[in-house]
Amino acid sequence: MRKPGKRCKETDAHYYWNRSDEHDRYFFKVLAGDFRERLGIPDKFVQHIRGRIAKTVKLESHTGCTFDVEVAKSLDKVVLQTGWKAFACAHDLKMWDFLVFKYDGTPRLKVLIFDLSCCEKVLPCHTRDRGEGEEQIENSRSCDDFPMKSPGNKRKAWKQREGCMNANTSSTSLSDSSGGSMSPEDQKSHSVPSYILPRRTYLTFELKKKLKEKVRAICSKTPIYGCVMKKTSIEGKPQTMDISGEYADVYLPFDDQTLLLQHLGKSWEVRCHIQKSNFPSKRLLKGWKQFARDNNLQVGDLCLFELLENREYTMNVHIIREK
């Protein structure tokens, strides 16, 4: 059999890109470099689509969840920009993940995600289990911190949420989408909440909204610890702040240590000591009073503590004012 000639290939390519229907154009991307901030669309794909991609597209993973993402120009390249970071965080995208995009002529790109195993990636519980019309549950762990939409009725959403919470705390084996068992490492990576609050924390609707927006913007692999300032943290004698054992036992595994708190380019050394009681916790002691005073903390303000990966026991503190 003869190999197709150059002219034949050109004819086939012309037909593929210029046929009257708008369905089933594909491109793929291998994630490398600074892929979390933006993702470039291949020049050849852009050239043949010739401006038919809308300024905002919906990215849809196989779960049915959708994210609104801006299509913009950066350094003469067409890129997915505003909204892409939220998609990347929600789907726990890693270096060398392989993404296949399907364009069907509408302002929507369907995305298949593969990891280094060469198989489709098992998505985090908060991406798989979010249901439309679902109410917020006050809980120290959050599984719904990303701006996504997904199909399903309310009853199904509650059942899914219950399953998601069990995945965070259960030691039993989880199953992936193909029916096989997940390793303990996979279970751990898929049960990490995006933020942790002390039990019985009450947030107003506005404060809850600001919390979710800030957590999405931070996009930390380690859960954010959030704490609403009480009188003991601002006016107490001594002036202290407690970090719940649920967070401290996992992410601050010591009895006595000096933490470096950072905010707006400044830093404070604060002693952190274990509090042994019926509900063990860690307490910020010496240095906390100065931090609270220098940053004008008020009762009701929400402080978010972001533990940095590359610096031991260093935390960026993000402050959401109550007023």
Automatic annotation (TrEMBL):
GO terms for molecular function: DNA binding. Gene3D superfamilies: DNA-binding pseudobarrel domain. The keyword Transcription regulation applies. Residues 130-191 are annotated as: Disordered. The keyword DNA-binding applies. It comes from the Eukaryota. Residues 24-117, 226-323 form the TF-B3 domain. GO terms for cellular component: nucleus. Residues 169-183 have a biased composition (Low complexity). Its main location: nucleus. Keywords: DNA-binding, Nucleus, Transcription, Transcription regulation. InterPro entries: B3_DNA-bd, DNA-bd_pseudobarrel_sf, REM16-like. This is TF-B3 domain-containing protein. It comes from Panicum hallii var. hallii.
